[in-house]
Amino acid sequence: MIALILLIAVGMASSGVLVPEFHSDMGYQFQLNIGDLEITEYDGFSHVGIFGEVGATEDIGRPEIPVVRKIIKVPRNGNIYVKIFNVQTRTISLDELGFPKWIYPVQPPIPKCGTPPPFTIDEEWYNTATYEVSSNEIVYVERVGTMRGRHLAVLGVNPVLYYNPRTGEIKHIVSATIEVSFDRPIDPVPRRLRSKYFDRIFSLFLLVPEDLPTEPDTPIVYWVIYHDPCSTALAPLLEWKRLMGYNVIATPVGAIGTTPAAIRDTIKDAYDHWPHAPDFVLLVGDVEQVPSNPGEASVSGGASSRHVTDLIYFTVDDTDYLPDIIYARFPAANCSQVQAIVEKTLYYEKYQITNPFWLAKPMFTACHSDPHCHICWESHRYVITHWLNRPRFQAESLYTRDGYTGSDVMDMVDSGVVLFNNCGHGNPNGIHEPNIVTSDVHSLTNAGKYPLVICGSCLTAKFDVPECFGEAWIRGRNKGSVGYIGSSDYAYWNVDEYWQRKLYDGLFADSFVTFMGAMFSASVHLMTAYTRYAHYYFEIQQFFGDPSLWLYWGIPEETLKVDLSEWSGVVPLGVPEYNIPVSHDDALVSFTRGEGRFGVGKSMGGYVSFTPEFIPDSAGSIWVVATKPNWYIPFIKKTYNEYLSIAYYSPESLRVGVDNVFDITIYNGDTVPFDTALIKITGFCLSESAYTDSLGHATMIVNPPFEGIAELTAYAGGRRVMRKDLVCYGAASWSLNHFSVTVPDIRMYDTLALGHEGIITFDLSLPGYICYYEGAGYARDSILISSNAGTLRVVPTIRKPLKVSFAKAGYVILTVTVPVLPAIGPFKGVLVDTVGTPITTRPYLYLLRPTGDTVTVVRANWDGSFDAHMKFPCDTYVVHLSGFGYYDTSYT
């Protein structure tokens, strides 16, 4: 019988091999937890590893010994000290455990084209030598460079201390404590280098997460360097990015200089001196118009073709290979091709799609004759099982082993696919198995159905030839692709598929919205897993398309909406601060007036809030655009921006507890008095109103009971024409002694969770007050509290903060805002039998809703561990387990 040890946990702490115990700007302390080594047998050799780790030694022909590598932040300069203590070791014998004495040797790089190298083994070493790690080699720190203001290093651990291939004896660390210290503090990240796109990368791969203040989501600086004659063809893209809320800069390459050195110096100057360093740079033109750079990297022991790379332009923060700006290229040979790429990009990003059925159809193709093709199939199966599974996607695998041809594949592209992912052999002119060349791409008829193409093959993005395979896809007018990912040099088996898995993990598990961000993340993983290839893959993996492009993953189910109904669809002038309802949080909402941006912000708590960046002299039109990546149709609307009223009123603030005589005169935008306009002053326990006379004048007596903000509004002709804040002052002080939030059924604290009851307890310095609450799906309501302490129970129904206010006559209003979040958690754990032994037959786990609907399917690993690599809403689920040799079992 199978027993389930762990199901879903919210906010579960990492149980990794290296666990941070302490960190400061002067150093770190980690607990190293190796436990038992993972040992398997393959081709007559033992394979030795560490659970969850990929890194290994890289001496070709000698044993592949597991190594732990992680990335940490370090100071720019100064000394780094590292020591290991509290070391616990274990000695085992492969022979006594029933495994071969010889550990599988490291193999030379195997390119995806040409003749693979023969199996390599240094038999003399196996017959005469031993693997030993000296005490000063067990742990090390190696600087790797600087990325967007962070100085990075690899923290490496060699946990296998001794291996004798003649006896099969291995001595390894079981656990230890590691201390890393500096003689100067870690340098702070300059504010001008902060970018939400890079912050996301660092939050995922740094062993110790950054402790940085939350940075606003704007500005987003989008810089285009283009072939001079193509400004007209490029103009619609620049306008769209501006309407989205980006800070757009366009520079003809002729103004910079057409040498690689001039372009790199200009980009570095912008990175070093602009108020906000560029987030994105798009190069527009082929290498003849906007030159690239000769590649610097190769794979030791591997094949190489002379490649060019744009990476060198963007490694401006240090002399390393780590990019500091997200970049891409439109590799267009002429302005007509620029126009074609722009048209497809706008069609896609603006969601001008009329029949989106194809957005749910990813397609995978792979070779069959190469002995390594099984790596492609396994990689595709991983992606389809984990990320592109039903019911949202209907993935198709058109493998040549099953008889599919290049014609079949291109027919499928013509019919419509969101993604075309190929794996196998390639060259600059196309791919092999299935056989597709550039002329086949020219013959496509997939107008209005433009996929992303990912080609895991050699040389298909070699953009220094007249037209490579990838350029044919992106250049086509009303056909081809909206983006292309491929290699400009030789790709390598194992490494390439590992890189692609990490690309998809980045897009889905790690929430990278742009492909270039996910590509950077995948290449960073090579720094710890396949170090030989890291620099090389940063150089050769190219993206043709908009560097800020995101895909629609499946058919979007919801359209963003910016609600202007309270102003009758108008964006009024004369409002000091705008709070406009938006249907979804985390959307970028921009208001653009002519050539200037009126305001931009990110929606939170159901609203976007901003202060105007300028005050227009007169009424006019305004564009309102809201975008949110991957799953949502953008909101795009042109409306009016005008003065709805001009008001003069006195006093400008109200004293608490006294009768204030309030006078107001209000006119429309053309200075005509508003006759019979309704004037209202409202707040907690406050509601006064009056109508204006024919001169637009009204008077009322207002006596606010509490100190805080009252709202002054005016309504005329059936719509609101004014809203202002009035300060109420002169009340006494009191204090909030205690305020706590718990969600008991999921053990969540300080935050409310959608659909779960939250309990709010509070205690104030004085008794006898009113507790008001609103938001999270509740209209304003209140409870009377006679003592000092009280309790409030709520169940949020929408993701908008709950505002809790405490009001006592003659006193200041005290307000606390409680965030509301969707409670989600991973589906991961370990399967053991009834005696506690891990299940090694790789059973399947079906996560089901109580209705029986399947949420996801996961297959356990050989050690019984499982991880869906996704997060799910916290709820009650049924898990059905099915494995060879065990009774099928279900748990709730």
Describe this structure in words.
- The protein is mainly beta and 892 residues long.
- 15% of the residues lie in helices and 38% in strands.
- The longest helix has 15 residues, at 335-349.
- The protein is globular and about 105 Å long.
- Residues 1-15 have low confidence and may be disordered.
Any descriptors?
disordered N terminus; 892 residues; Rossmann fold; 12 helices; Immunoglobulin-like; 6 domains; six-stranded mixed beta sheet; six-stranded antiparallel beta sheet
Summarize the structure.
With 892 residues, the protein is mostly beta strands.
Give the SSE map.
Layout: E1 2-4, E2 18-24, E3 27-33, E4 38-42, E5 45-49, E6 68-73, E7 80-93, H1 123-128, E8 131-132, E9 139-147, E10 150-157, E11 160-164, E12 169-182, H2 196-205, E13 221-226, H3 231-244, E14 247-252, H4 260-273, E15 280-284, E16 293-294, E17 308-309, E18 326-330, H5 335-349, E19 362-366, H6 373-386, E20 396-397, H7 406-415, E21 419-423, E22 425-427, E23 430-432, E24 436-437, H8 438-442, E25 452-456, H9 469-475, E26 483-487, H10 495-508, H11 515-529, H12 534-540, E27 541-544, E28 558-559, E29 571-573, E30 578-581, E31 588-593, E32 596-602, E33 607-610, E34 620-627, E35 632-633, E36 635-643, E37 646-650, E38 653-655, E39 660-667, E40 678-683, E41 686-691, E42 697-702, E43 708-716, E44 719-729, E45 736-743, E46 748-749, E47 752-753, E48 758-764, E49 769-775, E50 778-785, E51 789-794, E52 802-807, E53 814-818, E54 820-821, E55 824-833, E56 844-848, E57 854-859, E58 865-873, E59 878-882, E60 889-891
Parallel strand pairs: 13-14, 13-15, 15-18, 19-20, 19-21, 21-25, 25-26, 28-35, 29-36, 38-44, 47-54
Antiparallel strand pairs: 1-55, 2-3, 3-12, 4-5, 6-10, 7-12, 8-11, 9-10, 11-12, 16-17, 22-23, 23-24, 26-27, 30-33, 31-32, 31-34, 34-36, 37-39, 39-42, 40-41, 40-43, 43-44, 45-46, 45-48, 48-51, 49-50, 49-52, 52-53, 55-58, 56-57, 56-59, 59-60
